[in-house]
Write a structure and sequence with these properties.
The protein is α+β, with helices and mostly antiparallel strands and 139 residues long. The protein contains 3 helices and 6 strands, in the order ααββαββββ. The longest helix is centred in the middle third of the chain and has 19 residues.
Length: 139
């Protein structure tokens, strides 16, 4: 469960000097079992055919799930890393913004599983993804 004390501003501070900042992924909403962020569909996120790159969708999905897991664990003792991701690209998009919403569906001691749905500005499904996150002891 994501603590109520977490603020969106602190999540957006974590973006600095990362792929998340480069792709302009911005965290927008947080709840006890979900995290949301937006990402533009632009020259940084399109593939050569002019549509959103599947890798950009996967990056948004993994970002949401990994950060969500980070918020659920004792980060003094543990780290959260992506273990497996799949993504089904349902619809293309050429411009605008997409919003990803990650909802935790399993919060175990050593693994978390997230369901991530990425939609366009009309709330149409663009991509559905499942991410398994490993929870590892810090060395």
């Amino acid at each position: 469960m994501i603590p109520e004390s977490i603020k969106i501003e602190s999540l957006n501070e974590m973006r600095k000097s990362t792929l998340v900042e480069h792709l302009n992924i911005i965290f927008t909403k947080i709840g006890p079992n979900f995290l949301e962020a937006t990402m533009p569909v632009n020259d940084q996120t399109r593939q050569p055919y002019g549509i959103l790159h599947g890798g950009a969708s996967a990056t948004l999905a993994e970002t949401l799930g990994s950060v969500g897991s980070h918020l659920c664990i004792d980060s003094e003792k543990y780290i959260s890393v992506g273990l497996e991701i799949n993504a089904n690209h349902v619809r293309s998009i050429e411009e605008g913004y997409v919003t990803g919403r990650a909802t935790i569906i399993h919060e175990g001691k050593t693994t978390h599983i997230w369901d991530i749905r990425i939609t366009n500005e009309k709330n149409q499904l663009i991509c559905i993804s499942r991410l398994t996150v490993a929870i590892l002891e810090k060395k």
